[in-house]
Design a protein that fits this description.
By secondary structure, the chain is an alpha/beta fold. The chain folds into 2 domains: 134 residues, Alpha-Beta Horseshoe (Leucine-rich repeat, LRR (right-handed beta-alpha superhelix)); 165 residues, Leucine-rich repeat, LRR (right-handed beta-alpha superhelix) (Alpha-Beta Horseshoe), CATH 3.80.10. It contains 6 helices and 25 strands. The strands form 3 sheets. A 12-stranded mixed sheet has the order 4-5-7-9-11-13-15-17-19-21-23-25, with helices on one face. An 11-stranded mixed sheet has the order 3-6-8-10-12-14-16-18-20-22-24. A two-stranded antiparallel sheet has the order 1-2. The termini are far apart.
């Protein structure tokens, strides 16, 4: 080999090594980067190098996951037909964490909050690919149809708020299979039909189903729920309030059953809700006497029994509850109340539209004398004087004997 050719090969080798040094100092190059040197009769040289993440020099370890999230959100975006506020104009490019309403921890989507965005469209099965999503808040939009079955794969989801939309169909059973769900809000939609017993066995802290078209009887295991808030108001539920209500010693804070078609008595077991603050059964067709066990609700602040068919006297013990701020018994058939209740008149005690002699704004006498209360017979705890600590024993022994019947 001539000296000139050797010199040329030496120069070429030095040049290749120089480039190789540059490549190794660039941290953004991926595993695919490399240098190949061929020295032979033809003097061939190959230098290989590139980004292993599709050309995004800033992408980190979560780039593959972000690609999945990008595809999921773009699939959802394509199913949204109206965006009057222009929220989705920011949903462009691979940086999903910069999208409006999308919140990340590092490069991982953990929350989507599009409340009050007024979006019209449907929910897509691809959203289930967001396996690290903790919170999905979509209230006050115009999403229609049903919740995809794939949502059961949202294994990290804790809060699901789909209230005030146009969702319809039967109760979305898929929500029962979201393993870590704690907050379920389906208010103000058009769901209909029965609600499943499994709902009240699930470890939910909030069950908000009001303002739908649910019907049928409330499942017997209502009292099993560990939820602090249960709102079934403004539906079409019928039948009696389950007698198990309260027997499990629930820590519920609010129970709202107003504006349904409930009949029968208020169960004595309601007195076991030692931490309840709001109990509203107004606008139903409940009958009989108000159970004195309500006087055991030491934390109650709002008690609304209005627009039912209750009879007898408003119990003195009920009016003596010290945390009570508002007691509403209007538009029933109560025949009187005690001095303790009278002393609360100026403190949120509404008793108009009853049959109380000598009081203003009562029903006409013919209405009162012609109503017998439906001859409703309600189970009563034979404990005099009432001992709240003994309610649990008395109720569990008498639960099987509970009857409310029309002769």
């Amino acid at each position: 080999m001539s000296k000139k050719k050797k010199d040329n090969n030496l120069k070429l080798l030095c040049f290749v090594l120089f480039l190789g040094g540059l490549i190794q100092t660039d941290a953004s190059f991926g595993v695919g980067g490399g240098v190949g040197v061929g020295i032979g009769g033809g003097g061939g040289v190959w230098i290989g190098g590139g980004y292993n993440n599709g050309g995004n020099r800033n992408a980190g370890p979560g780039s593959v996951q972000n690609s999945v999230a990008y595809n999921a959100l773009q699939a959802w975006k394509s199913a949204i037909t109206e965006d009057p506020s222009g929220v989705l104009k920011t949903w462009v490019g691979s940086d999903v964490c910069s999208y409006k309403g999308v919140f990340c921890s590092g490069q991982t989507i953990t929350s989507i909050d599009l409340n009050h965005a007024n979006l019209k469209g449907t929910l897509v099965r691809d959203l289930a690919l967001l396996s690290d999503l903790n919170i999905l808040h979509l209230n006050s939009n115009r999403f229609s149809d049903q919740i995809p079955d794939s949502f059961k794969n949202l294994v990290s989801l804790q809060e699901l708020d789909l209230s005030n939309n146009l969702l319809s169909g039967p109760f979305p059973l898929v929500t029962l299979y979201i393993p870590n769900l704690e907050y379920l809000d389906l208010r103000f939609n058009s769901f209909s039909g029965l609600i499943p017993e499994e709902l009240f066995n699930k470890r939910l802290d909030a069950i908000l189903l009001n303002n739908n078209q649910f019907a049928g009887e409330i499942p017997r295991n209502l009292g099993n729920s560990p939820a602090s808030v249960i709102n079934l108001a403004n539906n079409r539920f019928s039948g009696e309030i389950p007698t198990s209500f309260g027997l499990t010693g629930s820590r519920v804070k609010e129970v709202l059953l107003l504006n349904n078609q409930l009949t029968g008595c208020i169960p004595e077991s309601v007195g076991m809700f030692s931490e309840i603050q709001v109990f509203d059964v107004s606008y139903n067709s409940l009958m009989g006497h108000v159970p004195e066990t309500i006087s055991c609700l030491s934390a109650i602040e709002i008690l609304n029994l209005a627009h039912n068919k209750f009879t007898g006297e408003v119990p003195d013990l009920v009016c003596s509850l010290r945390s009570l701020i508002n007691l509403t018994v209007s538009f029933n058939f109560f025949s009187g109340f005690s001095s303790e209740c009278y002393s609360r008149i100026s403190f949120g005690f509404d008793f108009v539209g009853n049959c109380i002699p000598g009081r203003n704004s009562q029903r006409p006498q013919p209405d009162c004398s012609g109503y017998s209360g439906g001859a409703m017979s309600c189970f009563r705890i034979p404990t005099q004087p009432l001992a709240c600590a003994a309610i649990s024993v008395g109720l569990k022994e008498g639960n099987d004997q509970y009857t409310s019947s029309l002769p």
